[in-house]
Write a structure and sequence with these properties.
Strand content: over 45%
Protein name: SnoaL-like protein
Helix content: 10-25%
Number of strands: 6
Shape: globular
CATH architecture: Roll
Strand order of the largest sheet: 2-1-6-5-4-3
Radius of gyration: 13 Å
Order of helices and strands: HHEEHEEEE
InterPro entries: NTF2-like_dom_sf, SnoaL-like
Number of helices: 3
Pfam families: SnoaL_2
Largest sheet: 6 strands, mixed
CATH class: Alpha Beta
CATH topology: Nuclear Transport Factor 2, Chain: A
Structural class: alpha+beta
Length: 103
């Protein structure tokens, strides 16, 4: 498995989210629930809306310019648990440039 993808999910559940945000490029694009957020400030605002959850990575496969992970997510939200796909694209220095989350 791509260690950068594993790192993303490890940092997503940490109590200190500073390292989580540091893994994104300054102009990164996150698309979740059909909404796009570009840049660290927008990503911080988006992440503030995400409830505490647990992630279980099912698999990771190459996908065009990046890699896609199928992930089971459980938490205190309607319809839990769900399986979502997380498509990642990375910069040359290993930071996330694009993250697309879809059912």
């Amino acid at each position: 498995m791509n260690e950068l993808i594993q790192r993303y999910f490890d940092l997503a559940v940490a109590s200190d989210l500073s390292p989580y945000f540091a893994q994104f490029a300054e102009d990164a694009l996150v698309e979740d629930e059909g909404r796009e957020r570009r840049g660290i400030d927008a990503i911080r605002a988006w992440r503030g809306e995400v409830p505490p959850v647990e992630y279980a990575i099912k698999d990771v496969v190459p996908d065009g310019a990046g890699e896609t992970a199928r992930v089971d997510i459980a938490g205190d939200f309607p319809g839990s648990p769900v399986c979502l796909t997380f498509h990642f694209e990375f910069t040359a220095d290993g930071r996330i440039s694009v993250l697309t989350i879809r059912p």
